[in-house]
Amino acid sequence: MADKKRNTILFVLLGLGLVFMFFSSISLGSVNIPFKEVYSSLTGSHASKSSWEYIIINYRLPKAITAVLVGVGLSISGLLMQTLFRNPLAGPYVLGLSSGASLGVAFVILGAGLLPSFLQTIALSSYGIVLASTLGSTLVLLLVLVVSQRLRDTMAILIVGLMFGSFTTAIVSVLTYFSTAEQLQKFTFWSMGSLGNLSWSTIGILAISVLIGLLLSAGSIKPLNALLLGENYAKSMGLNFKKARLIIIFATSILAGSITAFAGPIAFVGLAVPHIAKLTFQTSNHTVLFWSTLFFGAIIMLFCDIVSEMPGFEVTLPINAITSIIGAPVVIWLLVRKRNFK
Amino acid sequence: MNQILKTSNLNIGYKSKKETVTIAENLNLNLDSGKLITLIGANGIGKSTLLRTITGIQPALSGNVFLNEKEITSYNPLDLAQNLSVVLTEKLPPSNLSVFELVALGRQPYTNWIDALSQTDVEKVQEAMALTQIEHLAKKKHFEISDGQLQKVLIARALAQDTALIILDEPTTHLDLLHKVSLFKLLKKLTHETQKSILFSTHDIDLAIQLSDEMIIMTPEFVVQDQPCNLISKGSFDALFKDENIFFDAEKGKFIVT
C-alpha cells in the first residue's frame, strides 16, 4: 500500500513536470518572447507583436506537440520491445527499426529520380514517406522476429539489429551515387531528425498513428505482464501468445515507423526512457510502466527539444545529436549498474 | 477419491513430415485429487514429452487426455489455465518483478484487461504465500532470493492460479538434499491440505519412494503407475536403469552401486 501512495506522488510530480516542460518548450527559443505574451497567444487574445503570435502558434506549439508525440511513441515502442524480446537493451533504434525506416525513406527520396514523374510526386508526398518508412520498419521488425525465434540468445538479436543498421547504411551510400545533390541534401536533413518541420495537417497524421499505437499498447498491458515470465508460462496462464505478439508487433511498427517518417531516426529515447521509468517506479507491472513511460517520454523529448533550440543562440542543433548525447551515457550507466539487467 | 486427469490409450511422441517417432504407447494414467504423484525415468526416456502432452502443449499421437472429464484439446486457453497450472524448469527472463508481483501473476486467468487485482485475488495470493511460507519475501525482487526460495515462489504462483492440478517439471534439480526434502514435504503437505493433485518429474528416486503417494515409472519397455511399495514388490524399479554398475535393493528400497 505504501507503494501505491508513492506511485501517486510520483505521477503527480510527472504530470506537473510535463506541464512545466511543455510551457518551457513554447516559451524558450532563439527569439525571446516574454511569458505573458506567450500566454496571451495561446489563449487566443492577441500578443502585442503579430510576429510573436505567429511564431508561437505556427512554429513552437506544433513543435512542442510533435515532441510529446515522438517522445511518447518511441518510449512506449521501446517498452513493448524490451518485454517482447525479453531483452533490456531492445529499442526501436537498437534493433534496427529506425534503420529499416531510413532505408524506406532513402529509397523514396533518393530513388525517386528513377520513377516516372507522376509517381515521383506521390512518393515524395508526406503520405508516401510515411508509408515507405512504416513498411521499412515493419520489415526489419519481422526479420528480427524470425531471427530471434532461431536464436534464443538475447545478445545475438542485438548483433542482428546492428547488422541491419550497417546494411542500411551501405545501401544508402550506394544510393547516394545515383542521386542529385538536392536529393542528397533532403535525405541528410531528414536523417538528422527534426521536430520542427511539421505542419498542422501532418501533425494530425502523426497523432492518429501514435494514438492507434498507444491504444494497442494499452490493450496489451496484461499480455505484457504475462510475458515477464516467458512465453511458456504466459501460455500456461491463458495467454493467446500468437495474437498478443501480433498486436504488440503491429503497435511497435506503427509507432516507430510513423515517428521516424516525420521526425527522422531518433536514437536512444526508445531504449533509455523505459529504463528510467522502471528505475523510478521499481516495478515491472506494465499498468504502472505504461503511464510512467508515457510521461517520461514526453518530458525527456521536450527537454531535448529545448536543448536543441539553445535559447539565446541563432542555430538549432539536430535533435538526433541531442538525444544521443543525453541517451548514450544513460545506457552506459544502466549497463554498469548491472543489477537492473538481471 | 476424485479423478482430476485421466489418459486413455495415449500414445506420445513426435510427428514430422517424414516420420513418426513414438516414445510411449498405450498409457492409461490417473491423477487423483489429494495425491502427490512423481514421475521417474532415465534421462531422455520421454518424461518431458509425457508432461508436455498431458498439459496440452504438445498434441498426442493418438488416444485422449481428459482433464476433469473433458478432453484437454477442447479447452480454450483461459479455461485450461483455470484448471491446470505448471512450474517449469526454464530460467525466468530479466525483470524487476517482486516476489509478490510474481505470485500475483498466477491470478492472470481471473483478472480484468488491465490486470488489476481484486480483493479475492489479493487474498488468494496471500493464501498461496502463506501455504509455501514465503510471506517474509514478499517485497524482495525475484532475483535476490536463493534457488530454493525461488522454487517455492514459483509453486506459490501455481497455487495462486487456483487449479485442481499442478504439474512441475523437475522442481528439485539444483537444490541441496535439505532443500529437496523440504520441497518434497511442502508438496506433500499441499496435496493433503488443499486436495489438489500434484504431478512432478524428478531424479531423486529415494526421496520419491519415501514421500510420494503414487509413482509413474517410465522405462523403454513399459510405463507403470502404482504406490511405491507395490512397485517395489513388483520389481518395476529393476528395469529403470539397465546397467551392471547399479541395482535396486528391494529391501532397502533404494539403488545400490555394485
TrEMBL record, chain A:
The chain crosses the membrane at residues 64-81, 93-115, 127-148, 155-178, 198-218, 246-268, 288-308, 315-336. The keyword Transmembrane helix applies. Gene3D superfamilies: ABC transporter involved in vitamin B12 uptake, BtuC. It is found in: Cell membrane. It comes from the Bacteria. It is a multi-pass membrane protein. PANTHER family: FERRIC ENTEROBACTIN TRANSPORT SYSTEM PERMEASE PROTEIN (PTHR30472), TRANSPORT SYSTEM PERMEASE PROTEIN (PTHR30472:SF41). Belongs to the binding-protein-dependent transport system permease family. FecCD subfamily. This is Iron ABC transporter permease. The lineage of its organism: Bacteria, Pseudomonadati, Bacteroidota, Flavobacteriia, Flavobacteriales.
From TrEMBL, chain B:
It comes from Flavobacterium hungaricum. The keyword Transport applies. Residues 5-245 form the ABC transporter domain. One of its GO terms (molecular function) is ATP binding. It comes from the Bacteria. Keywords: ATP-binding, Nucleotide-binding, Transport. Pfam families: ABC_tran. The keyword Phosphoprotein does not apply. This is ABC transporter ATP-binding protein.
